[in-house]
Amino acid sequence: VQLVESGGGLVQPGGSLRLSCAASGLTFSSYSMGWARQVPGKGLEWVSGINIVGRTYYTDSVKGRFTISRDNAKNTVYLQMNSLKPEDTAEYYCAPGFTGPLFDRFWGQGTQVTVSS
Hints:
By secondary structure, the protein is mainly beta. The protein has no helices and 10 strands. The N and C termini lie far apart (37 Å). Strands 2-10-9-4-5-6 form a 6-stranded mixed beta sheet, with no helix packed on it. The chain has a 4-stranded antiparallel beta sheet with strand order 1-3-8-7, with no helix packed on it. 0% of the residues lie in helices and 48% in strands. The relative contact order is 0.32. The mean pLDDT is 96. It is globular, with a radius of gyration of 13 Å.
């Protein structure tokens, strides 16, 4: 399984970013997919997930600001992040899963999101 995240960067508070994760090596349409984030020195936080019929999950801190979506034809999952806050600063990873990761070992290299003025 290979997961390649992209789309991170530096953005001012209140700004937006769209993260993408291209997956290969798995039957993408058969798996829930999600996003997690990690700040150095802290544990991994599961942020959002989308299941195979499009049902979505969000952790409370991002509800109303983040939107997860998927394109099964492109084997890609997206995370649209709006109204970004400094506390959203983290390395973002995608992985199979809905309310948490399905597997311990299938993670991409991550993409850094920094929210700062």
